[in-house]
Specification:
alpha+beta; single chain; 18 helices; 777 residues; 6-stranded mixed sheet; Beta-galactosidase, Chain A, domain 5; globular; Glutathione S-transferase Yfyf (Class Pi), Chain A, domain 2
Length: 777
């Protein structure tokens, strides 16, 4: 099939947007630019239609699943790799013949407007998507800028056709998703629309400006709850003039909870129909301004090329050597990692705040989509190297959230001006601390300190008063209490690091003390983290393998969370009985089979190696913990095991949700041979590089290169490490090592070098390792 897309740039050719669209990766294949507000992508099912509700909504959190064979249409907003669903704003579907108003079902697509498709007639590249809608013989192509989506529909066999706009569509299994919507026809090419929805975020506002490249012959506004209004020539047919030239008839408009629009066109065969859609969370006029400012023309190929150029610039921050499969996995990971947080302001700087009011961004770009429980671990540390300027703006956006929120909290899991209160901890403090310690400080530091302290001492959020009173969150006060305690303790460590860097050592000491509260939920009789009650007794209902809702742990079990002390791994080693006992427990985690019935309540616990669940974040740092016990060679073996068994360049190549780029960031760091176990301590535990050469181009114009000599399928162990030509005897590197530029060279071998990294002073730093000179506190 002849495609519009031009030859792609050097690194964009290795990106496959279909990686992660199968299995439970929950990514989408559609058109998006780096950190774009628009994610224009196909949806392979309409999640709630009043009939045939989907029991497998979890599979379609991103709207699209690779296993599906029908497409409902193309909507303009999507999450990438989340474990929850929402968005799917403004579905559009080109149609020939009879227009059906219901989507139909996957089992009976002829009952609705959906169309069959096949992957043989589907393609995607960064900023571009294409598919043949088989039932209509329409080739649909999509591209995007930051705030505008552009469609190109080529009608291969029909001269007449229609475009359906479905304002009831959404990626959420919620019957009354649409609170209100309205649509207004401005002229014979332009429609303005709005809808407010309930879902994961309630009363979420979105506005649309839709412009067609040719005048519609007729248009019908349909309120399924009330009435239909058909234009029947009420506009100057074919004029394409501005709203002021509309003839003196009633302007077609409609409002209600169940609106659909059908625009009819003729003279289509051989004359592609183009559609531009600008979006805004502020107003219809802003949506129209976004549209006109970002795509003032009708050159689809130009927008595709522009998107490719933007992606090339972002992807070009890395250079790699490796196999084709490795290049595809690596650059697709970078592609996924650079999609969020996303821009959430209009071209004129306006945005809708968490207070529901309209604000003007000043001195920074406002961002949304902070999946912080996931992304503080590796995504945000990665962004400090590849997009440091945007990191400052993201932190400023978090501070906007703090100032505007009624609760006076930093974001927990927020998007589109709404706090969802999903997941646990207050991990925005980790992102702020890690960035500040790395010298990224173009934000209001005094306000950041205020916001951090207010959040960490909030009187109403997730049992913080009890945490401070007891030194742990009691299970008979709040479910998931043990996980909450452990994650608070890490966050408090990050706060201590931040305060130390500010010179407030007295206050820092308070948070370093709180960072040791993990000890209060460690049961020495079983050497596991365990739920604890207000009276100090241990939860009698304890099974270290069990992960259940309303239990002591969050999307994990005690096996996994018993290793969640990233700020003080050396202290944890002491609790577990020393290096050998700690290593034995790590091996036990990887080698003890996890029974499905123990985790069946949690879809997110996936990608299993024993009890290790690579598909979910609580496990992500665990393979690197062998370094802290003096046996880095075991980390090297585990990283290769994870890479070989739980990732590929196929649609199901992600072991679990990409979680807004966290899984991808793990892959990028791990492929380079190091990982941020505890963001905020400025160190990276070494693993083993998985590609022969990776170069990171830094914002300061320097380069950090990782070489892996003699790397092969058999040579997975590190026999020697040098940094800028000098032997490196420690099993970690620092932020200064990276940001200063240079070369980290690993010599790989089939046999482990078991003496490397043995000495306590050569191990990665943590709170209870005072012999390590790199410990900030």
């Amino acid at each position: 099939m002849m495609l519009t897309i031009p030859v792609v740039s050097a690194n964009t050719q290795y990106v496959d947007p279909f990686i992660g669209t199968g299995g439970d990766g929950h990514t989408f294949p559609g058109a998006v630019v780096p950190f774009g507000m628009v994610q224009l992508s196909p949806d392979t099912d309409s999640v709630f239609r009043g009939i045939d509700p989907q029991p497998e909504i979890y599979k379609r959190c991103a709207g699209y699943h690779y296993d599906d064979t029908t497409i409902v249409g193309f909507s303009h907003t999507h999450f990438s790799g989340t474990g929850h669903s929402d968005l799917g704003d403004l579905l559009m579907m080109p149609i020939t013949g009879e227009v059906k108003l219901d989507a139909g079902t996957a089992k009976n697509p002829d009952a609705g407007y959906r169309s069959r498709f096949s992957h043989q007639n589907e393609s995607a590249k960064p900023g571009y998507y294409q598919v043949l809608l088989e039932d209509y013989k329409i080739n649909a192509e999509l591209t995007a800028t930051t705030r505008v989506g552009m469609h190109k529909y080529t009608f291969k066999e029909h001269d007449k056709g229609s475009v359906l706009l479905d304002l009831t569509h959404g990626i959420y299994n919620f019957k009354n998703k649409v609170i209100w919507s309205d649509v207004r026809v401005i002229n014979d090419r332009t429609i303005l629309a709005h809808r407010a929805t309930n879902g994961w975020a309630n009363n979420r506002q979105m506005y649309f400006a839709i412009e067609f490249s040719k005048p519609f012959k007729d248009i019908e506004l349909i309120n399924l709850d009330n009435s239909r209004y058909r234009c029947n020539g009420c506009l100057n047919e074919g004029s394409g003039k501005k709203p002021s030239t509309i003839v003196n008839y009633k302007i077609p408009e409609a409002a209600g909870k169940a609106l659909k629009v059908v625009a009819e066109f003729d003279n289509l065969k051989g004359n592609p129909l183009l559609v531009k859609v600008g979006i805004s969370a502020v107003s219809k006029s802003n949506a129209l301004e976004n549209l006109n400012s970002e795509i003032p023309h009708w050159n689809f190929d130009k927008v595709v090329k522009q998107a490719d150029d933007v992606w090339h610039k972002s992807l070009d921050k890395f250079g790699i050597e490796g196999s084709l499969s490795q290049k595809r996995q690596f650059f697709t990971s970078v592609y996924h990692a650079l999609q969020a947080p996303s821009v959430y302001q209009d071209a004129n700087g306006q945005y809708r705040g968490v207070d529901g009011e309209i604000h003007q961004a000043k001195n920074h770009t406002h961002y949304t989509l902070f999946s912080l429980w996931d992304t503080y671990r590796a995504l945000h540390p990665l962004l400090t190297y590849v997009e440091p300027d945007k990191v400052s703006d993201m932190i400023a956006s978090m501070l906007d959230h703090y100032q505007q929120s009624y609760d006076k909290m930093l974001p927990i899991w927020s998007f589109h001006g709404h706090e969802t209160w999903t997941m646990i901890g207050y991990h925005a403090v980790s992102v702020i601390a890690d960035a500040y310690l790395k010298g990224i400080r173009d934000f209001d530091v005094a306000l950041a300190k205020e916001a951090i302290l207010a959040t960490a001492n909030h009187p109403h959020y997730d049992a913080i008063p009890e945490y401070k009173h007891y030194g742990y969150v009691p299970l008979d006060v709040l479910p998931e209490s043990t996980s909450i305690t452990l994650e608070y303790a890490y966050d408090d460590y990050a706060i201590g690091q931040f305060l130390t860097a500010l010179g407030d050592n007295e206050l820092a000491a308070e948070y370093y003390e709180r960072a040791t509260y993990y000890q209060n939920v460690f049961d020495p009789s079983v050497k596991f983290m365990r739920g604890r009650l207000k009276d100090g007794s241990w939860n009698p209902d304890f099974d270290p393998q069990e992960a259940k809702y309303m239990g002591a742990f969050t999307e994990g079990n005690s096996y996994q969370y018993s290793f969640y002390v990233p700020q003080d791994v050396h202290g944890l080693i002491n609790l577990k009985g020393g290096d050998k006992a700690f290593i034995a427990r790590l091996d036990e985690l990887f080698e003890t089979e996890l029974a499905y019935e123990k985790i069946k309540e949690h879809e997110d616990i996936a990608g299993l190696i024993g009890q290790y669940a690579h598909g979910n974040e609580p496990s992500h740092h665990i393979a690197y913990l062998y370094n802290y016990a003096g046996e880095p060679w075991r980390t090297q073996a585990r990283i290769r095991q994870i890479m070989d068994t739980l990732s590929s360049d196929k649609p199901d190549g992600l072991a679990g949700n990409d979680d807004v780029g966290q899984m991808s960031a793990w892959y990028i760091f791990s492929a380079m041979g190091f990982y941020p176990v505890a963001p905020g301590d400025l160190s990276y535990a070494l693993g083993a590089p998985q590609l022969p050469k990776i170069t990171l181009k830094l914002a300061n114009k320097k380069q950090f290169t990782v070489l892996a000599k003699n790397l092969s399928a058999d040579n997975k162990f590190v026999s020697q490490v040098t940094l800028n030509g000098k032997p490196l005897n420690r099993s970690y590197i620092t932020h200064d090592d990276i940001i200063s530029g240079g070369t980290l060279e690993f010599t790989m071998s089939a046999k482990p070098k078991k003496t490397f990294g043995n000495a306590l002073s050569s191990r990665p730093p943590s709170l209870s390792n005072p012999k390590n000179p790199n410990t900030l506190h």
